[in-house]
Write a structure and sequence with these properties.
This protein has 160 residues and is an alpha+beta fold. The protein is 61% helix and 12% strand. It folds into two domains: 7-63, no CATH class; 79-158, no CATH class. A two-stranded antiparallel sheet has the order 1-2.
């Protein structure tokens, strides 16, 4: 006679089934130019560290460009500015993306080129990207930020 599965075992089996489904869905979405972000969280652990009875799986459908943008930001948070800039340069060369995302890409790329946290800041490249942002989107909501960065980069190039 088989013993009844514990809550933790049932949860693990449920998460495994969900993981297979999410994996299949992600592969299918990639075929159509989309990406999925998933996040599984558990809570209410008992004193032995076993999961309790509550958990959640959150999935969000995003474009491949948005997923790459988010990945570049994660790389920068991990101090991999070269990797982040490489991804953002690829996105900046694409002109068929959503205009809001394109503005985000150009501003972020301009910021990363001149960031104080970047081990090898390039103020000339940062300036060029920010000027491109202002040229392509004269009424961007990021105008004030871009102009502030341009002034800051000018000071650095002047040696101040």
């Amino acid at each position: 006679m088989r013993a009844r599965a514990s809550i933790g075992e049932r949860r693990a089996a449920s998460c495994a089934r969900a993981g297979v489904w999410v994996g299949f869905a992600c592969a299918a979405l990639g075929w159509f130019g989309c990406a999925a972000r998933t996040k599984t969280t558990t809570s209410d652990f008992d004193p032995q560290g076993n999961p309790g009875t509550s958990y959640s799986v959150q999935s969000t459908l995003v474009s491949k460009d948005r997923a790459q943008f988010d990945h570049a930001r994660e790389l920068a948070r991990g101090s991999d500015y070269d990797g982040a800039i490489q991804i953002l340069n690829g996105l900046a060369n694409k002109h068929d993306m959503d205009s809001k995302l394109r503005q985000d890409v150009l501003l972020t790329l301009g910021e990363m080129h001149g960031s104080a946290l970047n081990p090898a800041p390039d103020y000339d490249k940062g300036t060029a990207v920010l000027q491109q942002l202002l040229s392509e989107f004269p009424k961007t909501e990021y105008r004030e930020r871009a102009e502030s960065l341009l002034a800051e980069y000018a000071k650095h190039r002047a040696g101040n």
